[in-house]
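A brief tutorial aside. Many learners find it easier to grasp structure tokens once they have seen a single protein encoded end to end. The record that follows does exactly this for Protein-export membrane protein SecF. Read the sequence first, then the structure, and try to relate runs of similar tokens to stretches of the chain.
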Amino acid sequence: MINFIKHRNLFFWISGVLVAAGIAAVLVFGFRLGIDFTSGSLWQLEIPATDANTVNTFFTSTLHIETSNVSYDSQSGVYSITSKEISDQARQQYLGELKQRFGDGVKDVDFWNVSPSVSKELKQNAVLAIAFVLIGISLYVAFAFRKVSRPVNSWKYGFITLLSLAHDVIIPAGMYAVLGKYLGVAADTNFMVALLVVMGFSVHDTIVVFDRIRENLIIYRGKEDLSGIVNRSINETMRRSVSTSFTLILVLLAIFFMGPLSLRFFVLTILVGTVVGTYSSIFIASPLLVVWQKLSERKRV
């Protein structure tokens, strides 16, 4: 049986560095917000025999359109141009100029406009969604561990679950801030959905381990101390946690490499969140429970 509790300080240091890096990235770089949250237009075009830099230069210099991002999907051959809001009339005019410059092979694949009022509503909905998820998780944990076995109070399980949740969200969020800074990746509604998925997976994985701890506190009370019971519980649930995560990771990798460009960073966020969530449920959440309980016992003495 692996003694995870013995090496908890190493795991805490690794997480501390990653979380600090994530927070620093968000504070320094911020997020490159997509049109979902800033308003604007997303225009998808097939443009033959060119590259993203040439397309970007043509939009900014010739069409005088301020673009925030130009990306190319090599699988579909489609350019995605994000810019300030473009009217339908102006779009037809620009399409004509594009065909004059790049030939009749230019095809208008798709076009979206997001007005300022809609983007404001999407921002509010995103904040509300995260708030409802956090409230729902808190209520669920409080209910699930309402009759938890001593010596650990039920509210400690809930608080550590929320700490693990923050850990699992901050790290992929920091990654997204770096991608936005250096690759122009926009944080849009897909990003928010990915974070919500990560939250759900993180809580599920942590609750599985905590539930086993609760059961073992009854079975091994008086036979082992809390550290031994928690360590036993981690070993008993680790195979299930890793197997479940590994299966999900294989699916996400397939979508990441074979799926459309529009889903790539959405999938990457869930992928990183899955790895981090599995790590935190095994190496962070349960050892934190032991450390906290030991500190509480010392204060009583």
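Self-check: The first helix runs from residue 8 to 29. If you spotted this yourself, you are ready for the next section.
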